[in-house]
Structures are given as C-alpha cells and as structure tokens.
C-alpha cells in the first residue's frame, strides 16, 4: 500500500482531483467540511481527513459519475460526494444489544424457557459469497465509463426486483435507513435483493412518500436525519469477547441436546447479530481483525434504537414472505421479511391470536409431531440460546405448535420456507415482541 502524506495539500492536487473545483484542506481535517461543497468519504464510511497528493492515486469515476480516488493496486481510497448529503452526527454511537432484559416484566404472558412445538426447515442452503471489486463492488475501477449525474426515478413494486446503481456503501446506507424506520431489510449486507425491495415498498406505504433506490443523495440525506452515518466505530468489550460461546452447532438434534446452551460460536457471530449484519459482511468490513481481543475498534452498521409502539394487529403475508405490524389506529408501525410455511407444511389460515411471549425459549424435538431427523426417534430437549431452532424469542399462537420466532440463520430469512411457523431474524422477533401483548391478532393471507 502506498504511503500518503497527511499534510496540507497543494492546489494543483486538488484541481487534478476535483476537475477544477478546489477543496480546501481544512474541509477534510477535523470534520471542518461545512466550508466546502464536497468531501471525501472512505469505503468504510469515514470522512477522509486528508487529500492524497498527485501521482499517488488515480482519479476516475464510479458508475454514478462521481469522482473517486483509486490507489495503484486498484483499491478504492475515497469517493467525492456533496457535503450536505453526508452530514455525520457529532456523537459516539451508543447501540443497544438485541437482548435487553428491561422489558421482561412489562406485560403479562411473558415466559422464559418455554418449550415449543415446531421447527424451522433444517435443510442447508448455499450462501452466495460477497462480491468482489470486479463484479458487484461499489466501484468498478479506473476504466469504468462515467454515468449521468441523475437517473430517472424508479417506481418500486413488491414483485419486481430493484435495479439500482447504488454503490455497496450506499446500499448499506439504504438498508440502515430502512432498519431505523422499523422497516426491516433483513441482514445488512450491502446487497440489493427482495428483502430490500419489499422494505422500500412497505416504507412508502407507511409514510406516503417515495423512495428512489437510485437517488443516492436523497438516501444519504434521509440517513443523516435518521441518526447519522450508516457505519460507525465500535470498541469490542471484555464482555463481548468472553461469551459464553460453543465451539460449533451440530446439525444432529441428538447432539444439540447434549450442549449446555445453543450459544453463539464466536464473537464475530455475536457482533454481527447485535448490529443486524451478515457475518461475512462484518468480516469483510474489518479485514484481518481479531474479534476476540477486547479494546479492538471495528466498523459496524448502526441500526439505531429499536422501534417502539403498541401493536394491535399483525398480518403475515405468505406470498410476500413479509410480516406487517399495525397500531390501534390502523397505521403501519413495522414490517419484517419472514419465512412463512411451505406447500408440504403450510402455515395456518385465517386469524389466530398471540397467547404468550417467551424469551430465550428451549425447544422440544418430537419426531411424532415434527419431522424425523436421522436416527433420532425419541423426544429431545434442546437448550435455549440464539442458535437454537427457534432463536431468542417465541410468540406462541392460539393454534397449537405454531408461533412467531427467531432463527439461528438470519441470512436465510425471506429466502427459505419454514415448517409452518413465522420465522424472523432474532433482532426483528425481539423488536416485535416488545410491541405486542397476548391477545394481539395474527392474520394469515395468501
């Protein structure tokens, strides 16, 4: 990696980069960017506090026509964007854990260690690797032709995949913004997919506004107003590194039953869930980092505080694979991608109610009620934990053995089917659980 002098920058360098628009050196130092119309942002989401000298970088354009700096190894150094569209907050992020216990006594019907009677689909699914620099990374390299500064507004519908020219970092910004609004995009991974697509539509239904997935400046402005930058620094604590963890989670339910708890397998897995991220994306954002060392500063998504409200009615849309939570006034409060039933093991039809809410639930495997796995022909008690079959939350429905619950594999939500239950990410299930009470109706629609 080349060496960059972190000193005052010559005007000739600025002109070479900005195409004649001089950016004062102080605009990139100490966050004093208010005096400049533009600023430089690193791939990690930080404001670059210096400008590289001429000859140390290649000046190019990304697919949106914005000026970018690339080093001589092909690595992105920074992107020039309007200062007013990327206004960072002036505080250290304080992001709550998804496993806060302060609400356990807030409503009747909450129970711990409740035995459930259904199970998510155990079949494995191949995960697609994160894209590289030459495929779906935010910047295509020096030879990428300039694109128009503006693109036509795209109308998003639930059944038509989003076609977006956003960079990888801008997609993260979109996902974080939606998550902060209570409209979950599923895992934050910097990828446009059906979960993001459905979230955009739900947000538009909730607000009555239009969100263009190609308008980066609008997305970044909305992100700023919702709480600041999408990516923030987080210092790994001794508690984070301490666990408890287990070495691995076996597939066999007989072996699962022998574990002391269905705990996380690593600090990275725990942190990814804490910040609503795909674990692979967390590792990609922090290359070479040892997550087991307390005091290590890492880059994480900032999904903000959980959504608050009182949910009076839930709609589980089987076709969309999405759950909608409505308030007493009929307004949409939150929406979540979900895995809901299958042709062989369909979800209930009609309307049921939530009977009880259980945190940290255990699970009873019964081959006479559930599927038959391998040679397991007897009833097994699976201990609780985030990697348990129903995750960290169980909302029992009035139809026996069915419920709304979490999952140990958040990246599969919305992409796979369940054995009849409504499966959400652990953090979405936790958020929903904090807004419901026993008696709330759950309507299944096709």
Automatic annotation (TrEMBL):
Active site: 405 (proton donor/acceptor), 421 (nucleophile)
Pathway(s) it belongs to: Cell wall biogenesis; peptidoglycan biosynthesis
Metal-binding keyword on record: no
Region Disordered, residue ranges: 113-152
Residues making up the signal peptide according to the UniProt record: 1-27
Keyword presence, Methyltransferase: no
A Pfam family assignment: YkuD
Highest taxon in the source lineage: Bacteria
SUPFAM superfamilies in the record: L,D-transpeptidase catalytic domain-like, PGBD-like
CDD domains: YkuD_like
L,D-TPase catalytic domain sequence ranges: 312-445
Keywords: Cell shape, Cell wall biogenesis/degradation, Peptidoglycan synthesis, Signal, Transferase
PANTHER family in alphabetical order: BLR4375 PROTEIN, L,D-TRANSPEPTIDASE
Similarity section: Belongs to the YkuD family.
Protein name in UniProt: L,D-transpeptidase
Organism, as annotated: Peteryoungia desertarenae
């Amino acid at each position: 990696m080349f060496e960059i002098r972190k000193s005052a920058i010559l005007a000739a360098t600025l002109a070479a980069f900005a195409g004649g628009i001089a950016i004062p050196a102080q605009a990139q130092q100490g966050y004093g960017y208010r005096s400049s119309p533009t600023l430089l942002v690193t791939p990690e989401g930080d404001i670059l506090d210096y400008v590289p000298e001429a000859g140390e970088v290649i000046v190019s354009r990304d697919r949106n026509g914005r000026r970018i700096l690339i080093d001589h190894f092909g690595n992105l150094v920074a992107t020039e964007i309007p200062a007013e569209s990327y206004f960072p907050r002036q505080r250290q992020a304080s992001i709550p854990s998804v496993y806060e216990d302060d609400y356990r006594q807030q409503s009747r019907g909450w129970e711990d260690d409740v035995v459930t009677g259904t199970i998510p689909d155990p079949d494995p699914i191949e995960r697609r690797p994160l894209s590289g620099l030459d495929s779906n990374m935010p910047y295509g390299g020096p030879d990428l032709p300039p694109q128009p500064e503006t693109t036509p507004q795209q109308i998003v519908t639930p059944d038509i995949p989003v076609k977006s020219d956003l960079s990888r970092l801008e997609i993260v910004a979109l996902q974080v913004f939606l998550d902060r609004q209570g409209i979950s995009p599923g895992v934050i991974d910097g990828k446009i997919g059906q979960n993001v697509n459905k979230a955009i539509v739900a947000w538009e239904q909730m607000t009555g506004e239009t969100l263009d997935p190609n308008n980066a400046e609008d997305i970044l402005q909305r992100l700023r107003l919702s709480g600041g930058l999408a990516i923030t620094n987080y210092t790994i604590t001794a508690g984070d590194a301490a666990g408890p963890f287990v070495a691995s989670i076996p597939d066999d339910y007989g072996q699962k039953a022998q574990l002391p708890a269905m705990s996380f397998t690593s600090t990275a897995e725990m942190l990814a869930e804490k910040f609503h991220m795909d674990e692979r994306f967390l590792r990609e954002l922090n290359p070479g980092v040892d997550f087991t060392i307390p005091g290590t500063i890492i880059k994480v998504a900032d999904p903000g505080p959980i959504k608050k409200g009182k949910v009076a009615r839930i709609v589980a849309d089987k076709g969309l694979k999405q759950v909608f939570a409505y308030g007493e006034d009929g307004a949409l409060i939150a929406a979540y991608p979900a895995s809901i039933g299958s042709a062989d093991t369909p979800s209930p039809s009609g309307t049921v109610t939530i009977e009880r809410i259980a945190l940290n639930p255990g699970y009873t495997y019964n081959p006479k009620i559930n599927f038959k796995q391998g040679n397991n022909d007897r009833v097994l008690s699976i201990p609780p934990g985030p990697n348990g079959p129903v995750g960290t939350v169980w909302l029992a429905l009035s139809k026996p053995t069915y419920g709304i619950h979490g999952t140990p594999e958040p990246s599969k939500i919305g992409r796979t089917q369940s054995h009849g239950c409504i499966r959400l990410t652990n953090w979405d299930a936790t958020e929903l659980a904090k807004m419901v009470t026993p008696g709330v109706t759950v309507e299944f629609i096709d």
